[in-house]
Specification:
Length: 199
């Protein structure tokens, strides 16, 4: 076990990365502790040092997904915080770009596949932080009348529903071809988001 940890430097990260790669290439049905161990080049018993079962591994992959998403959102927030209209559009677009770059992980993150989310505190913490980032963006936009006044939480749900629904439809190729012929995807998204704006 020590040899495996030393070889990989960080066995837990190696297993998460391997699991995410399996998810990306073969789908969730192919993802098991054993398949992740095999892909990471360690014994089939090695994962049990970090994960009790597949649910633990799925939670860890989802958690890493949320951390990666947070990085993208943070970059947009830092870049566009002085322009609330751009801030709203660009943070939403960062969410969409993440989903398009990692569709399998994105679907897992929001699949509800975890039987007991609260049994995975790191996952819950990452989820809450990501949502709070959205609430903060919405509150900033409300202060400058870009979004309607009211509960930032409730407005955040509306914004999130639009952004998530938009990319979910895109990933499933549900947008009419006639619309995509007329508009670039980001333009179509921005136009949709402007329906929620007041200014």
């Amino acid at each position: 076990m020590k040899k495996e940890k030393y070889h990989h430097g960080d066995l837990k990260k190696a297993l998460i990365d391997s699991g995410r790669n399996i998810l990306r290439k073969e789908g969730i049905n192919a993802l098991t502790l054993r398949s992740a161990a095999r892909a990471a080049g360690v014994s089939h018993s090695a994962p049990y040092a970090h994960f009790a079962d597949k649910q633990d591994l799925l939670a860890a992959i989802s958690t890493q997904g949320f951390l990666d998403l947070q990085e993208r959102l943070t970059l947009s927030i830092e870049k566009y915080q002085i322009s609330p209209r751009d801030l709203l559009i660009e943070t939403g677009w960062s969410y969409i770009q993440f989903a398009m770059s990692e569709p399998a992980c994105f679907k897992l993150m929001f699949s509800g596949i975890l039987e007991d989310e609260h049994a995975h505190p790191e996952f819950m913490s990452a989820v809450r932080k990501t949502y709070q980032m959205l609430v903060n963006v919405v509150a900033t936009c409300q202060k400058t009348n870009v979004l309607p006044a009211g509960s930032a939480d409730e407005t955040a749900v509306a914004v999130w529903s639009l952004v998530h629904g938009f990319v979910a439809l895109h990933l499933e190729r549900q947008f009419p071809g006639t619309v995509l012929e007329k508009h670039k995807l980001k333009e179509l998204f921005a136009n949709s988001l402007r329906l929620l704006m007041t200014a």
